[in-house]
Structure formats: C-alpha cells, structure tokens
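Batch manifest, entry 17 of 40.
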Amino acid sequence: MTKGLKEYFPMIREREEGAQEEFLNVCTGVKGLKFLYDGFFKEIMNPEYVPGRFNDFLSSLMGQRCACYSADLLLRQYKRVRGEGRKFSYRDIRDVYTIVLFERSPEAFHGYPDTYYHYFEQKSDTGLEMEFLQKYLFIPLDIFRKRKQNEGIMDKRDAWLTLFAEDRPERIAELIEAYPEFRAVYEEGYGICRNIEGVMEMFSKELYELDRNTVQYMIDEMQDTIDAQRDEIDAQKGKIDVQKNEIDTQKGTIDKQQQTIEKMHIEHERLRHQTIAGAVSLLRSLNMPEQEIITRVCEQYQIDEAEVHKCF
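Output type: structure tokens
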C-alpha cells in the first residue's frame, strides 16, 4: 500500500471542513505541494537561503555548473561587472539562461510528445558561428509527466522535474525514497503551510492568476484560429476574384466571337444573294424564259422559288 505523505511529514494537518479545496488538498496530504507557485518557489529556491540547492538544480538541467540570470538582468550584470573597479572585459559577462517551466505547455510542444527538454540558442542563417549570451531552455512539465507515467525516476534531472511537475502523493514518495535530500524541500514547503493566512492568500492569488492565464491562453488560441480563418477567407476571396475576372474576360471574348459570327453570317447572306442575282441576270441575258430561269436557279442553289423572286 502506498504510504501517505503524513507518514513522511507529521506536520501535515488533519483535513477540516469548510476551507478551500485546493488549500486543504495540499495541507492534508491529498495532493503534494505546488512548488511552481511563486510563493513556494521563491522560498525553497532562493540562492540567498540555500545556494547549493539552486546550483544543483541548474547543474541537473544544463549538465554543468553555471550562473543563471533572467534575460532582463543582462544589462544589470554588465553594470555590476563594470563597477567592480578592475579592468573590464566582455568575457567577464556570463551566459544568460532563460529557463521556462510550463505546467501546461502551448500546443506547439505537443507535436513532440516524447521530448520535454528543448534548448534554443541564436544561430546565423549563413552558418557563421559566434557566441551569444542568450540561451533558452523550455521544459513542458505536462509532457514530462506523461512521458514518465510508467517509468521510474532515472536520474537527478528527473528528480528535479518530478519535484515541480508532480503533486500525486505516490510519485512524491517515490522521489523521496530515491533521493532523500528532497525531503528537506518538502519539509520547508509544509513549514510554510503552517502560516495558514499567508498561504491561503498565496493560493488565492495563484489560482486567480492561473484562471486568468488560462482564459487569456484560450482567447489567444481562439484569436489565432480566427486570424487563420480570416486569412483563408481572404485567400479564397482572392481566388474567387481572379476566377471572376477570368470569367468576365472569357465572356468578353465569347461576345466578340459571337459578333464576328453574326457579321460573317450577314456577309455570307449578302454574297449568296449577290451570286443568285448575278446568275438570274446572266440567264436573262440569254433570253431564257422566266420560269425556266427560276427552275434552273432553284436546282443550282437548292432554294425555293420565293427566294429566287427576291433576286428579280
């Protein structure tokens, strides 16, 4: 039987009725702590309080010991190095790593269901290689959870990602059994939970922010869909306009051809009438009787007598 979290952390409170569901689930051990919540993360990962822990986290992700600065602190780092009073060199500026942990990753990441570690850096489109300070690491924790659903914790990196990704008691117990040093992290977290008023306020803010971000994400997704549909409609409208212009052009060509046919028909009738009239005139010049002229012209041109009379 899976051990409850209260067996590991006796300071967990018994569940009380009437309190917030999310808060009680954590405080009573139904679910684990949400270390991605700002209040928890700032406390347990603060380099001033536990410098070794933060370095250990970075080492497990990057494969080397490194200083991590958010991108907007690059200028501050530059000013600090310049202000140290020694000879300045740009080589003293360390790489800036922006690490993003997604509890719910954007749709684009789900095109890579077996990958939960995406490293980016700036590159030239010509193949020219230069070292830039900005590095980016994106970790979709939801994909990590699915990928590790039926697997154990394989290494220290898995352990750190489990800390931030999992709130299931059985997975947390597995983490603590495999890496006992993480017990101290949870003890600090549950110690924070003793300040009920402060933690309730933190949960309210985090859940509000989560709901707001979720709504904004849904709005952005819908806007992207609307924009794509609008572009598709515009493209189809452009095709329709082109086809309409082609139809109008073809209709104009047909009208011109019809007019030409009508003119040719009129000219044909005129020439035919002129030919018949010439034949009648020729036969008359031979003093041929009128009836014989009519009979011969009808036979020659396959017409009736009425049409021959028009030429007299």
